[in-house]
């Protein structure tokens, strides 16, 4: 396709135009992301590339030339990559903090009871969640699947797993509010459990005797 045809095709939502920019720029953008972010998995890079080109298709920004298209693709892919890096850094810090808390805590039977009660209390609200969020959280807890395994099981992208989990956590927080005010220790465990749900992979000792 000629440049003018591609630009007009993007404006008119012509699938042929999207195929053309995929052919022109997909490999270039992929190599750039893979070269800059060595810790990303192949699946994470593919999700970033897919979401980047999807943005072009869904938002239909006004392009005047293919140079504008290329700049948009690179900028969008880098922004999505930086967002993923920040998310990974947050999860790493949170996991470290939680590991320290649990490694240094001498649990009494009463503390264990409160913790289990808090976790069960959260799980009891799962049926009220959106279907996809409920599926993702249940697979995390009941089958202890990783994000990659959940994505494969549900035939969705890893980014979709992250978004479903995020929506589920937000909904749980809305439903739970200031739960169990008469038992501040149990509330603390409830909040810790919500935080841990939002990270990749639950520790097995977070949910003893639950299932």
Question: Your description of this structure?
Answer:
Residues 128-174 form the RNA polymerase sigma-70 region domain. One of its GO terms (biological process) is DNA-templated transcription initiation. The chain has 211 residues and is mainly α. It folds into two domains: 3-86, Rna Polymerase Sigma Factor, Chain: A (Orthogonal Bundle), CATH 1.10.1740.10; 105-206, no CATH class. 73% of the residues lie in helices and 0% in strands. It has nine helices and no strands. The chain has helices at residues 3-11, 15-36, 42-59, 66-103, 109-123, 131-142, 147-154, 158-176, 184-197. Helix 2 crosses helix 4 (66-103) and helix 3 crosses helix 4. The longest helix is centred in the middle third of the chain and has 38 residues, at 66-103. The chain is elongated and about 70 Å long. Mean pLDDT is 78; it is low at 200-211.
In helices, the fraction of residues equals over 70%
Beta-strand portion reads under 5%
- Cα-based radius of gyration, to the nearest Å: 22 Å
Care to count the β-strands?
Answer: 0
Q: In this structure, how is the largest beta sheet organized?
A: none
What is the H/E order? Answer: HHHHHHHHH
How many DSSP helices? 9
Domain RNA polymerase sigma-70 region: 128-174
InterPro entries: RNA_pol_sigma-70-like, RNA_pol_sigma-70_dom, RNA_pol_sigma70_r4, RNA_pol_sigma_r2, RNA_pol_sigma_r3/r4-like, WH-like_DNA-bd_sf
Family: Belongs to the sigma-70 factor family. ECF subfamily.
Pfam family, one: Sigma70_r4
């Amino acid at each position: 396709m000629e440049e003018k045809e591609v630009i007009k095709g993007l404006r008119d939502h012509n699938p042929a135009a999207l195929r053309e920019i995929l052919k022109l720029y997909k490999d270039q953008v992929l190599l750039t992301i893979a070269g800059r972010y060595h810790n990303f998995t192949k699946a994470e890079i593919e999700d970033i590339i897919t979401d980047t080109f999807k943005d072009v298709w869904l938002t239909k920004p006004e392009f005047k030339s293919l140079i504008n298209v290329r700049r948009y693709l690179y900028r969008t892919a880098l922004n999505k990559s930086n967002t993923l890096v920040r998310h990974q850094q947050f999860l790493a810090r949170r996991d470290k903090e939680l590991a320290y808390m649990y490694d240094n805590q001498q649990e009494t039977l009463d503390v264990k009871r409160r913790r289990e009660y808090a976790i069960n209390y959260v799980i009891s609200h799962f049926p009220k969640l959106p279907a996809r969020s409920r599926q993702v959280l249940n697979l995390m807890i009941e089958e202890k699947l990783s994000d990659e395994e959940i994505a494969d099981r549900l035939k969705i992208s890893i980014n979709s797993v992250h978004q479903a989990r995020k929506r589920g956590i937000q909904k749980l927080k809305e439903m739970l509010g200031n739960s169990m005010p008469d038992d501040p220790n149990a509330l603390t465990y409830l909040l810790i459990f919500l935080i841990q749900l939002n990270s990749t992979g639950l520790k097995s000792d977070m949910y003893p005797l639950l299932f």
